[in-house]
Amino acid sequence: MSTTKIRFGTALLGVIALTVAACNQGGEASPWRTATSAASQGGMSALEAAAKAEGKLNTIALPPDWANYGEVISAFSTKYGITVDSQQPDANSQEEIDAANNTKGTDRAPDVFDLGAGVALANTALFAPYQVSAWADIPANLKESTGLWVSDYTGFMSIGCDTATVELPATVADLLDPKYEGMIALNGDPTTSGAGFNGVVMAALANGGSASDISAGVDFFEQLNEAGNLLPVDPSPATIASGQTPCVIDWEYTNAAQGVGRTDDVVWETVIPSDAPPVASYYIQAINKDAPHPAAARLWEEFLFSPEGQNLWLKGFARPVLQEKLIADGTINQEYLEALAPAQGTPVVLTQEELTAAQTYVSENWNITIQ
Amino acid sequence: MSDLTAPLPAVEPEAGAATSGAGPRRPSRLRTYAALAPFFLYVGAFLMLPTLIVIVGSLQDASGVPTVENLRVAFTEQRFVDAFMRSIWLSLVTALAGAIIGGLLAWAVATGNPDGALRRLVVAASGVLAQFGGVMLAFAFLATFGANGIATIFVEETLGLDVFDRGNWLYGLTGLAVVYTYFQIPLMLIVFLPALDGLRREWWEASASLGGSSWAFWRNVGGPILAPAFLGALLLLFTNAFSAYATAAALVSQGAPIITLQIRAALTSEVILGQANVGKAMAVGMIVIISITMVMYALIQRRASRWIR
Amino acid sequence: MMAATRRRPLPVSIARRAILIAVLGYLILPMVAMLEFSTRGARGTRNLDAWVAIGSDPNLIDAIVTSLEIAALTVVGMLLLLVPTMTWTLLRVPRMRRVVEFLCLLPLAIPAIVLVVGIAPMYRFLNTFLGGSALTLAFVNVILVLPFAYRAIDGGLRSIDVPTLADAGRSLGAGWLRVMGEVIVPNIRGGILSAAVLAVALVLGEYTIASLLNFDTLQVVIALLGKRNAYVSVAVSLAALIFAFLLVLAIAYLAPGGRSRAPQVEEE
User: Fold this and answer.
1) B188 and B79 housed in the same domain
2) Based on the domain organization, do A197 and A295 belong to the same domain?
3) What is the extent of the structural domain holding B31?
4) What distance in Å separates the CA atoms of residue C138 and residue C79, rounded to the nearest whole number?
5) Does the distance separating the beta carbons of C226 and A87 come in below 8 Å?
């Protein structure tokens, strides 16, 4: 190899190395990396300025029609002029953590997480503690005391149907009716998906089970499968639009969002079944300890827990954690509040022990694989 | 393991090397082998090291303590054993189906004009279809046999039968078998066609001039020569189906009937956490099964080399 | 090849046609179905909306460009890795031939889903130097394409007399680099093109590793689109297939003697 080529090659390598080093500078020296509240570093205006200077936010696993995240993201982006890179909208909570681990130290790493309870509690080592301005108003059992994580919204397990094709059921038991043959889809496999798992919990509560014994739920789905009513398909906006999944068991906020703004023949309605107490599970917000954009991440959290953010979630049919406080303060959006499906009974939220026991039971007994 | 697509007979590289390289300067052994270093380093870093990581990971629990628990779970727990069995069944069935149908197609193409448009088109299409499994194939089949697929609608309207169960058969093992066969056929064509090409016209003519019928030719000459290539291709198809992930991932979401989907579930489940190392144990199981297949392939090829002279 | 003669017995002819029609028909059916599905409009009309939408989805365009870039890098990497190695093995270290062949076929034994589990730490390491761009997928794609590329280049190398050519070049005073670049490579053009095309097809179709390492390549975006809009995802799948097919066909027509065959002695 001629010396010219060698010199050129070395120079090229040098340029690449320098560029890469420069690009990876972001976020490392920022004081916001360890800030545990906005006040500690000069208040909201300082936070906004720092976030705007960073100019970018990496989010992950936020589908646009999940709790109205599409509008939440664009509202945040417009208000502060920060570009939001919404990665992998269809990832689940575990995949969020995997992505954070795989892209650690790069500019692509997710800044913030929105996780299911189980995954969040298992990965607190990845989070940075931060207390939003509204911290004091959040109930103590819905947050981690130092700010490592905080609950953001919940929904109730629901059944959604295309009423142009089939009648909306009123109870879980109705689903066994022959008119639903080949029509019912569960959002995800209960052994891998949180929404699917909670669907089984709802079925358990409707069939004599309880938070500590969900075997009745697994049995119900086997019955449903034998009756030929259960579909082995993952429901999605596409399957709903094409008529492949006329009925879907999923969180209220996902189901109800499918009914909004439709231009085709599908009429999507949602009901929270009356033969079981509503099943709820809070999702959890956390900030990545190694976030490439720490100030933007914290500003995002502040935005989400502000009345504006909470109401946008409400618009997406999710029940935000500060709901009671907003009602008391009169800052809640009444129209959105009234659009929520009626629910009777005290919501059931599984405790950590009940969750572990139920998940173990499901993993060992869920046998619905279509042969 | 000799190259499956090597035409028969092959150029003998050993003989070639012996006649060359006797130049005036004998380069040092080190320099000779050093030229191969980049290749070995690259494969070592990007193939051997990850495999090692998987094997080591399967022998550790979630906190790094050495254990055989993961292997025990992966090979004895009913749902994983079932998944292994189903994967093997699926791979065998689709390998056979693909080999037979693909073999027939290869014969039909090979007996045609070697420079003709048909051959070029079919070989090109096969090259693409064999690689393009996964997501696109899943969508293609959904468009054909799904709930609103053209075939489903056609059968319903002309025959009035819901043969395809509103398209839901696609998500089961039968559906996977049909979809897998679809990419096995082109793969068979690509792998087997050179072997058919290598059947020299002279042998056919020699057989005919000795008074042998077409059946005699195949039984005594063509068959034995092609058998190793056919078996080798069959094993390759088996491995291909066994390792396949993307197509099943795109089609199946409820339940994990085959082992690659079980690995996905172990790695990405948000309900049952900490199963990543069980996933690695399953991966080790897959490597073992495939290695057995590859050894069989190598043995067949060695027997076959009798004919390649 | 046997029976290249036009005088085929009638039953064979019929059988041949029947097989061609049945099998090729089965292979083409889903393509036709995809075309039909992607041109459906509301209430039984036909339109090209889904196809037009391909051009207006920025994520999709980004993904297409990214995948093509990765494909190009993979081809270059694969050729740089394999051609010198295989030639050198053929000429100087023939006993390593089996080892090299084994290593090249090894990726078939290690499924992508297994590989991605073990390669994640490697990618974490790479990301700190190279910034986490999707182009780093080329590294692992080269491994994935090794078995197929090896076969193609091996076929090419077997069809020429490498030792003689190399000797000729060397005895005329060329260094190894020139021998490689100006003597060997042009003579195995068919094999190289074949390998390159296989590499492009593989990269454009690769889903497993890209999705589990969280990169937005073409297949990952198609899968995503499939959940939002079934029509566009089918349209773009068909478009990608047609593109790859045309590419392969173009190479097949441009490559001299694109099939690897032993030289026919009687033609000399």
Assistant:
1) yes
2) no
3) 26-58
4) 12
5) no
The count of other CB atoms within 10 Å of the CB of residue B210 is 10
- Residue C234, chain B, CB below 8 Å: the answer is yes
A243 touching B, CB under 8 A? yes
For residues B77 and B184, state if they share a domain. Answer: yes
> Quick one: CA dihedral B71, B72, B78, B84, positive or negative?
positive
Q: Which CATH architecture has domain C56-260?
A: Orthogonal Bundle (1.10)
Quick one: A15 exposed, middle or buried, by C-beta within 10 A (0-12, 13-18, 19+)?
A: exposed
Statement to judge: residues B86 and B116 lie in one domain: yes
The answer on B73 and B53 residing in a single domain is no
Q: Say yes or no: ipTM exceeds 0.90.
A: no
Whether B110 and B251 share a structural domain: yes
Q: HSE of B302 in the Cβ direction (CA atoms, 13 Å)? A: 7
pLDDT, tens digit only, all 309 positions of chain B: 334 444 443 333 333 334 444 445 555 678 778 888 999 999 999 999 999 999 998 898 878 788 888 888 888 888 889 899 999 999 999 999 999 999 999 888 888 777 788 888 888 888 788 876 678 888 888 888 877 778 877 887 887 766 666 667 777 788 889 999 998 999 899 888 878 877 766 677 777 777 777 777 777 777 777 888 888 889 889 988 998 888 888 888 777 888 988 888 888 887 777 788 888 999 999 999 988 988 888 888 777 666 554
Counting as contact any 3 or more CB pairs under 8 A, the partners of B are: A, C
Q: How far is B93 from chain A (nearest CA, A)?
A: 15
**C chain contacts of residue A239, beta-carbon cutoff 8 Å:** 230
Measured between beta carbons, which residues in chain B are less than 8 angstroms from residue C36? 143, 150
Return d(Cα A253, Cα A317) in angstroms, integer.
4
Alpha carbons B217 and B219: distance in angstroms, whole number: 5
Q: Is C222 in Cβ contact with B136 (below 8 Å)?
A: yes
Within-domain flag for B293? yes
Chain B contact probe: residue of A187, A192, A197 with most B CBs at under 10 A:
A192
**Burial class of residue B24 in the structure, from the number of CB atoms within 10 Å of its CB (0-12 exposed, 13-18 middle, 19+ buried):** exposed
Asked if A314 and A359 sit in the same domain, the reply is no
Indicate yes or no: CB of A20 within 8 angstroms of CB of C131: yes
Same domain, A60 and A150: yes
With tokens 């109930």, the residue in question is A139
Alpha helices, DSSP H only, in chain A? 3-23, 43-54, 69-80, 93-102, 117-122, 194-206, 215-226, 237-241, 252-257, 294-304, 307-315, 323-329, 334-339, 352-365
Q: Do A83 and A72 fall into the same domain?
A: yes
Pairing, β A127-128 against β A230-231? unpaired
A270: Cβ–Cβ under 8 A, 6 or more apart, which residues?
A158, A159, A160, A252, A255, A256, A259, A317, A341
CB contact under 8 A, C227 and A102: no
User: Rounded CA gap, C225 and B299, in Å?
Assistant: 45
CATH 1.10.3720.10-classified regions of chain C: 56-260
Q: Does C118 touch chain A (CB under 8 A)?
A: no
Same domain, B158 and B227: yes
Task: Give a yes or no: residue A127 inside a domain.
Answer: yes
Nearest CA in chain C to B102: C23
Chain A residue whose CA is closest to B262: A192
Residue with token string 């090259």:
B127
Same domain, residue pair A233 and A299: no
Looking at the complex, report in whole angstroms how far the Cα of residue A62 sits from the nearest Cα belonging to chain C.
13
Same domain, B44 and B100: no
The pTM assigned to this predicted structure is 0.81
CATH number at residue A329: 3.40.190.10
The structural domain count of chain A equals: 2
Set of chain B residues whose Cβ sits within 8 Å of the Cβ of A186:
254
Q: Is residue B191 in some structural domain?
A: yes
